[in-house]
Design a protein that fits this description.
With 319 residues, the chain is of the alpha/beta class. The chain is built from eight helices and nine strands. Strands 1, 2, 3, 4, 5, 6, 7, 8 and 9 form a nine-stranded mixed beta sheet that branches. A hairpin with a 7-residue loop joins strand 8 and strand 9.
Length: 319
């Protein structure tokens, strides 16, 4: 950052120069006519303002720019093959009229009179008053929105948790999607496809995720197939740019003062493309650190696919 005021440099005696002059001109370099060592002497300086510097940078083709998230890190060698397999699965399920949902957890939000990024139209001088500091203890807690987005019908159910983003919470959010929206339209469907990220509460290595999905499969009688996006590719998950981005636009500049406000703003999200969203508050307590034993996993009706079995598998109902 350049200073606004003009910067000037004072001339001060050089101790090194005085020593060289007092040495009687005994220089280490034989250049004729020199009284100082090569490179010695005071550098010439000129006063300059930040405005001039900015104009010079502009003439040189410089502009003020923010960081851009484009670097995803090393790509997994099977990344493209997994995308092709996932897309084939989506087409196969949609061709038979079976449900395909994209799931993920949106960023956690502080609930209270806190500043929310963005601006909105209000009468002049009537901006919403919010707290100066975003200290969590000054609010009501954190909202954890977990969404299930129906790719074919452009509809979603968002379950807003209040405790922890766990595998049990993720599975319960999908259960609520089925009860509130999915069952009405896919009541006789024999199978369900879930497209999910590789990490988080619905991560491919999370035992509890598979355990709770098995319970959902047993309850609904549907075979549940899961296809995970390769590591580092979560931005390609359709729920991110078809649902979550519009929720953020809908509530920008609006303080999330309480959980009711969060649920209402999510549920009120609409787009020109016809997106419809249902939002519900989940007050259940979800504990972290719950261990799942090997015996529990052995009792699952889990069928890994032949193509990348760590990323693609089906859970069959046990009844």
């Amino acid at each position: 950052m350049f200073q606004d005021k003009i910067t000037k440099f004072r001339l001060a005696p050089s101790a090194q120069g005085l020593r060289e002059l007092r040495a009687g001109g005994k220089l280490r370099t034989p250049d004729a006519g020199r009284v100082r060592q090569a490179g010695g002497g005071r550098k010439t300086s000129y006063p300059i303002s930040s405005v001039t510097v900015g104009r010079c940078l502009s003439q040189m083709g410089y502009t003020l720019q923010a960081n851009v998230k484009t670097r995803e890190g090393p790509q997994h060698p099977n990344r493209d093959a997994q995308f092709r397999y996932l897309n084939r699965q989506v087409k196969a399920f949609r061709r038979t009229g079976d449900p395909v949902i994209s799931v993920d957890t949106k960023k956690k939000e502080l609930v209270g009179a806190f500043k929310n990024a963005g601006r909105r139209w209000l009468p002049k001088g009537q901006a919403d008053p919010v707290l100066v500091h975003d200290f969590p203890h000054l609010g009501q807690g954190k909202a954890i929105p977990y969404g299930a987005y129906d790719i074919a019908r452009n509809r979603a159910v968002v379950n807003v948790g209040v405790t922890h983003d766990t595998a049990e919470f993720a599975a319960e959010s999908i259960r609520r999607w089925w009860r509130l929206d999915g069952r009405r339209h896919y009541g006789k469907a024999p199978r369900l496809l879930i497209c999910a990220d590789s990490g988080g509460s619905n991560g491919r290595r999370t035992r509890a995720w598979k355990l709770h999905l098995q319970a959902l499969s047993d309850e609904t009688g549907m075979a549940i197939t899961v296809c995970h996006y390769p590591p580092g590719t979560s931005k390609w998950n359709k729920i991110e740019h078809r649902l979550f981005s519009f929720i953020s636009l809908n509530w920008k500049g609006k303080p999330l003062v309480n959980f009711e406000t969060v649920v209402n703003l999510i549920g009120g999200t609409r787009t020109r493309g016809g997106l419809k969203v249902k939002a519900v508050l989940d007050t259940n307590r979800y504990e972290t650190g719950v261990e799942v034993s090997k015996d529990d996993i052995d009792q699952l009706r889990l069928q890994p696919h032949k193509t990348h079995p760590d990323w693609n598998y089906t859970l069959w109902p046990r009844s």
